[in-house]
Amino acid sequence: MECPLPVIGYVRTARTELDRTPVQAGANRGEEGVLEIAEEYAEGLDGLEQFEYAWLLSWLDRPDRPLTSLTQVPYLLRRTQRRMGIFAMRGPRRPNPIGLSLVRLLEVSGTTVRFAGVDLLDGTPILDLKPYVAAFDRPPGEPGSGWFDDVTVAEGTTPEDLA
C-alpha cells in the first residue's frame, strides 16, 4: 500500500544538531521558530490566527541512527539505561519517523507561522498543521503518562544534557 505524504512546508529554527535540540516542544516553550508554508497551502492558514496552540506533524528526516530494534533507551532514561518499546516513547527512531509538537502560535501572516516551543531542527519537513482544541485534545482529569510521570524534564533539556 502506498501512502503519499506531501510536505506542506519547512520549519526554520536556530537548531542544527540533533543532540543539542530540546527533546520536546513543551520542554522549550520560550524558543521561537517559523513555519514556512508552501504557497499552494497558504490558503489553508485562514482562521488559524484565532487559535493559541497548534500541533505540528513533522517528518524527522535526520535521525541520529536507524531503527534497529523495537525497544530502545529513550533520551530521558539514558542515565538508567532502561529500555522501552518504541510505541511507549516519543523518540525519533520509529517505523515512520513522524514527530508531534504542540507549539504556541505567535503570528500567522501570509505563508509564515511564527511559533514558540522549538524541538525541531532547522529545515525539518512539516506534513501537517492542526489547531489544538481543548475540548477534543485535553482529556478529563489527570491522565497517567506511564514512565514519563517518574521523570523530571528541565526547560530546554537536550539529548546531550541527558548523555
Give an overview of the whole structure.
Belongs to the tRNA methyltransferase O family. InterPro entries: TrmO-like_N, YaeB-like, YaeB-like_sf, YaeB_N_sf. Residues 5-141 form the TsaA-like domain. This is tRNA (N6-threonylcarbamoyladenosine(37)-N6)-methyltransferase TrmO. Keywords: S-adenosyl-L-methionine. There is one protein chain. By secondary structure, the protein is mainly β. The protein folds into 2 domains: 7-61 and 97-134, Elongation Factor Tu (Ef-tu), domain 3; 68-92, no CATH class. It is 5% helix and 28% strand. The protein contains 2 helices and 8 strands, in the order ββββββββαα. The chain has helices at 134-137, 159-162, and strands spanning 9-12, 32-37, 53-59, 71-72, 84-85, 98-109, 112-116, 125-131. The strands form 2 sheets. Strands 1-2-7-6-3-8 form a 6-stranded antiparallel β-barrel. It has a two-stranded antiparallel ribbon with strand order 4-5.
In short:
A 6-stranded antiparallel beta barrel has the order 1-2-7-6-3-8. Strands 4-5 form a two-stranded antiparallel ribbon.
For the biggest sheet, the summary is:
6 strands, antiparallel, barrel
CATH superfamily of the largest domain: YaeB-like
Low-confidence region ranges: none
Radius of gyration: 16 Å
Overall geometry comes to globular
In the CATH scheme, the class of the largest domain would be Mainly Beta
**Mean pLDDT across every amino acid position:** 91
Spatial order of the strands forming the largest sheet: 1-2-7-6-3-8
- The proportion of residues forming helix, as a percent range, comes to under 10%
How many angstroms does the end-to-end distance come to?
39 Å
